[in-house]
Amino acid sequence: MFDGPRLPALDPTERLARLRLARTPRIGPVSFHEALAHFGSARAACRELGALPESRVRQEEQALAVRGGRFLVMGEEVYPAALAALPDAPPVLSAIGDLGLLGRQTLAIVGARDASLAGRRFAGDLAASLGHAGFAIASGLARGIDAAVHEASLETGTLAVLAGGIDQIYPPQNARLQEAIARQGLLLSEMPFGTPPVARAFPRRNRIVSGLSAGVVVIEAAARSGSLITAQRAAEQGREVFVMPGSPLDPRYAGSNDLIRNGAMLIRGVNDIIDVFGQPQRPVQPVEKPTKRNHDTDYANIVGAMSATPTAVDELVRRCQVSAAAVAEVLLALELEGRLERHRGNRVSLI
Fold first, then answer.
1. pLDDT value at position 289?
2. Of 233, 232, 225, 259, which Cα lies nearest the Cα of 245?
3. Quick one: fold of 100-277?
4. Fewer CB within 10 Å: C terminus or N terminus of the chain?
5. Cα end-to-end distance, the chain, whole Å
């Protein structure tokens, strides 16, 4: 666990200023932290640097809330402590799902997109075993190893870090898995709402996967695999790096075997990892526990309040007296059933 002293509540005006500063296009994670250090607060930095208008941040926050999510701002108690100590920690994360997973000891498992059947099976078995041992499992929701890892750890606790905005479905073949993680696990992204994933965003994503974790397991990494970037960042961050070895004749293991040659720990199974970290303490209390309601009742109420005439999502929240997260879940279910049409202005109607 990455325990630390309890943080005082972040002043609401400072929280808003940090969101504005973090979303200002020319300010990245490192320059954000430099601005805080130089000006003493985000409020002062916003005055001097001309940060993004408050209205833009409010719009994104509302769009996130409609999908059942919220911002995690650096300085808040809910912000992952494992990330907070990094010099390039993301100033703000968008989150949808179970924030209680951030209180669990986490291990990352990453690997090839075009993984072998044996590699996917090993990744899934390892993720399931570590999950049942008490670890939360993080990965990047890519094809291959990442997808196998998330599927196997969905019931025990999985965290997916996205390269694009948290509303972006990528890759398309993992759409249902991404939706399942939003319901049962936790989705995280540092990118603004609506940002499509681009090539340069994936290495940035990888540092968060490793930064959230006590250790990173690499499975089937080729010579120029993105998993090697995750392993490199993990080593720089002081995390343990574990590798499943493979045949020197198989190019899918060229990067993996180089990691072992350069000092990464070879593993044969789950016990090799538990021997390093021990058994996590369980149960772990969630950071925030959402209020439970009867899903069937919510579904009936929300559908009953809709018609073929477009209705604002905000109006459904008010009319049905349910949370934005409950409305978002029902709307997603209707969309998957082919019964929902979305319109401009965040309005929806029944088909």
1. 38
2. 259
3. Rossmann fold (3.40.50)
4. C
5. 48
Mean pLDDT of 118-144: 95
Q: What is the pLDDT, as a whole number, of residue 4? A: 45
Token pair recorded at residue 114: 């075009």
Cα torsion 309, 172, 71, 192: sign: negative
Calculate the CA dihedral of residues 196, 197, 198, 202 and round it to 10 degrees. 160
Tell the burial category of 87 from Cβ atoms under 10 Å away from its Cβ (0-12, 13-18, 19+): exposed
Rounded to an integer, what distance in angstroms lies between the CA atom of residue 291 and that of residue 288?
A: 9
- CATH fold match for the domains 100-277 and 295-350: no
**Residue 350, SS3 per DSSP:** strand
The mean per-residue pLDDT over the stretch 73-77 comes to 94
Non-local CB neighbours of 48 within 8 Å, separated by 6+ positions: 39
* CA dist., res. 196 & res. 201, Å (int): 9
Cα 183 to Cα 66: distance, rounded to the nearest angstrom: 14
Q: How confident is the model at residue 53 (pLDDT cuts 50, 70, 90)?
A: very high
CB 94 within 8 Å of CB 208:
no
Rounded-to-integer distance, Cα 336 and Cα 310, Å: 18
Where do the domains of the chain lie?
A: 9-52, 100-277, 295-350
CA distance 64 to 69: 5
Q: For 285, what's the count of Cα atoms within 13 Å in the CB-facing half-sphere? A: 3
Query: CA dihedral in degrees (289, 156, 127, 160; nearest 10)?
Result: -30
Classified by CATH at the fold level, domain 295-350 comes out as Arc Repressor Mutant, subunit A (1.10.10)
